[in-house]
Amino acid sequence: MPRISDRQSMAVGKSNAQKSRPISPESNASTKVWLFSLLLTLQYGAQPLISKRFTSKEVIVTSSVLACEVVKVICALLLLAKDGSLKKLFKEWTLVGSLTASGLPAAIYALQNSLLQISYRNLDSLTFSMLNQTKLFFTALFTFIILRQRQSIQQVGALFLLIIAAVLLSVGEGSSKASSSHNPDEVLFYGIVPVLVASVLSGLASALCQWASQVKKHASYLMTVEMSIIGSLCLLVSAYKSPDGLAIRKHGFFYGWTPLTWIPVVLNAVGGILVGLVTSYAGGVRKGFVIVSALLVTALLQFIFDGKPPSPYCLVALPLVVTSISIYQKYPYRVKKKEI
Predict the structure, then answer these.
(1) 190 three-class SS
(2) Which of 57, 178, 289, 336 is most buried as measured by Cβ atoms within 10 A of its Cβ?
(3) Spatial separation of the C-alpha atoms in residues 26 and 67, rounded to whole Å
(4) How far apart are CA 284 and CA 290, in angstroms?
(5) Residues 258-286 pLDDT 10s
(6) Phi-psi region of 256 (alpha: psi -120 to 50; beta: other; left: phi over 0)
């Protein structure tokens, strides 16, 4: 019988080892990235349509926002418990540290969520989604002001494209819908203005959260819990004498709700968790592709379920939005040798 050489024996052993080797952590992580990215794309793209379909105009905005915050806290606590870090973070937690890191962003996000709920009801889904992308510009602006995070020339150009698209949508959609509306100012003041103000607030809050994460070393899931609780308290205080507060006391917290109303509430909360997961596993580039894909999902779902093709203004603005976000993610700022 011919003798097997040492080299052949090593080759056979290596082949058998490769066959019996378990799936690598990198492969498992890649699978998670694709799964989270797909789920976030579907959630982000479908959220405006689902909110408009399952949330009636009788639903009190504050009740919807508060319910979303409660669901978000539950999801974040479950994730912390799963990671095994809940007890450790609870022991190290301090009220001063919590207010310093999460207090202001929480109040800002609470106001932003209320504005988004108002805008959902007065804009079509695709217009809302594209106007909502202007938060990328304001995030870049506030991260530069607060963290001195610079932008490349390509990114600056991309951000200008995004602003042009937003202005086009604001003027075009507002004028076209006003002509067929009984109240010409309704679309502008209850649809376009709220989502643009919410984008400014989102950019400021994102920069503050990034500062808390990088400078204060605050855990992201813990910030989610803190911001949801603080934001809910801010909403409750502000709603005491507001029309929403009066409506809740008169009609009840769940006035206008149906079992289907929980669908957009839960999806919105889960979407916030998915954003953190995609960013954690894949970074900002993959998140940018998710946002672009979500815009196309919104347009497709709106056409399928509402039978409504995109307006001419959306058709012009959509490629500007897609191009600007793609360029922004593809050409990040690179530090020059002289700056090191």
Answers:
(1) helix
(2) 289
(3) 37
(4) 10
(5) 999 999 999 988 887 787 677 656 544 45
(6) left
